[in-house]
Amino acid sequence: MPTTTHRGPAPGTERPETPAAALRAPSLRRRMACWLYEGILMFGVVFIAGYLFDTLSQSRHALDHRAVRMGFLFVVFGIYFTWFWARGQTLAMKTWHIRLRDRHGAPVSQRRALLRYVLSWMWFLPPLALLGPLGLSAGEVSVITLGWVAVWALLSRFHPERQFWHDAWAGTRLVQA
């Protein structure tokens, strides 16, 4: 007769997670590592979306239809993030064991995921807004953007539950999966 091995706690001895433990925010280091990994994965999304855009618009140069291309990528990113967040996790979030929930711990709706997507542009819009009026070079904007990302991430330390502020405004939260 084959024997089976049981992994994990003995049956009946599992402790249910407390609501507070289930909604605890992952460490800032883990969230930022996930954020960086998400950025790397987005290269694939940008490549496929760019190829589709260039094929449909018959663009011969990356700067052809630049404003329309940026709008197209904004919509593609919105679809990508809204779809995955409404299901709880992107691939990067699965890798780093992070899940998106609403403020009560329930899965987020597509509407709330879309709101989070729009508000998540706070990671980039403030420094990018300086690009035009101040006439800064791309290198200067890159340095300012990196500084702003660090400040925005550290501002989560001032949130009572250590959540990013765009999550608080969207009624969402990142939790340990």
A few lines on this structure:
The protein is mainly alpha-helical. The protein has 9 helices and 2 strands; from the N terminus they run H-H-H-H-E-H-H-H-H-H-E. The chain has helices spanning 19-22, 28-57, 66-86, 91-95, 110-119, 125-129, 131-134, 138-154, 165-170, and strands at residues 98-102, 172-176.
Outline, from the CA principal axes?
Answer: globular
Q: What separation lies between the terminal Cα atoms?
A: 37 Å
Total number of helices? 9
Helix-strand pattern, N to C? Answer: HHHHEHHHHHE
The average pLDDT value, as a whole number, equals: 87
Secondary structure class reads: mainly alpha
Strand content: 5-15%
Q: Low-confidence stretches at least 5 residues in length (pLDDT < 50)?
A: 11-18
Number of domains: 1
Largest sheet: 2 strands, antiparallel
